[in-house]
Amino acid sequence: MCLLIVNQTNLIAKQQLKNAWDNNSHGGGMAYPFTNEHNERCVFIEKFTDFEEFYSEYKSVRKMVDKPMILHFRISSSGGRSDANIHPFYVREDKMAMGHNGTISSLGDDTMSDSRHLAQIIGTFKGNSTAMLKHSGLRQLIYAVIGKSKLAFVDSSGNFEIFNEHLGHWTANGDWMSNDSYKEVRSWVYQGNNKVAKTSLSSHKTTAEKYKYYNDSYKKATPTRNLFDDWDKDLDSQEEHFDLESNTWVKY
Asked: How big is the CA angle at 152 (ends 87 and 175), to the nearest 5 degrees?
């Protein structure tokens, strides 16, 4: 069910990352803070479908960036296999990124993964850094949605935030791992919450066939992504709004 890593500043051993890739082989990505040519702090996301390209870029980034970054290795469980569904995802364009390990059955569809959908929803809230995630109301909403899933965020200053940190573990080198699929190559993987043999992945239902029943039943009672359009209109009609970063009501 994917591997999510918060890599502080050290270079993770290539063999560990290769194990992670071989166990979660549907694409890998990274998100890291950097300062652009305009001296603006940003978060940059890169996605890969080849391990050697991934590792070469990772080594280069670690030489340049001395702040925490997110790494992710994917096994598709919703939304199908596409570059768009490779983690991490922007929560706020160029300012904050998110990776996810787990499955959220109420989100996503046959083309958009549950993880990408969640990043879009969190992005509708105000804030450009992990400070927004400190707000108790937003934290409670996120925990209510993700259950036992694990999330990691990194912002343009190199601050990170982990949800369900206790369900992963910290290594001796100070990196947080969402599971132990980096330790050795296995003949099986978790796809969603199902333990399946790697040889069955090609026939495992991950796209339209898997979601036919889901879309025809449960999602009839589920709000669409346009839910937030009307919400934003209502907020715009008010004289003030709640700023998650300052934790106060402010005038427009």
From this structure: 105
CA distance 65 to 84: 25
pLDDT tens sequence across 139-162: 999 999 999 999 999 999 999 999
Q: What is the pLDDT of residue 216?
A: 47
Nearest CA-CA partner of 76 in 213, 222, 194: 194
Whether pLDDT at 97 is above 60: yes
Phi and psi for 112 in degrees, rounded to 5? -105, 130
Cα–Cα distance, 170 to 60 (Å, whole number): 24
- pTM of structure: 0.77
Q: For the range 130-139, what are the long-range contacts, defined as Cβ-Cβ under 8 Å and sequence gap of 24 or more?
A: 130/96, 130/154, 130/155, 130/159, 130/160, 130/161, 131/159, 131/244, 131/245, 132/244, 132/245, 133/161, 134/247, 135/244, 135/247, 138/244, 139/163
Q: Which helix (H) or strand (E) holds 57?
A: helix 51-64
- Report phi then psi at 221, rounded to 5: -105, 10
Distance CA 231, CA 248 (A): 19
Quote the distance between the C-alpha of residue 169 and its chain's center: 17
| Phi/psi of residue 168, nearest 5 degrees | -110, -155
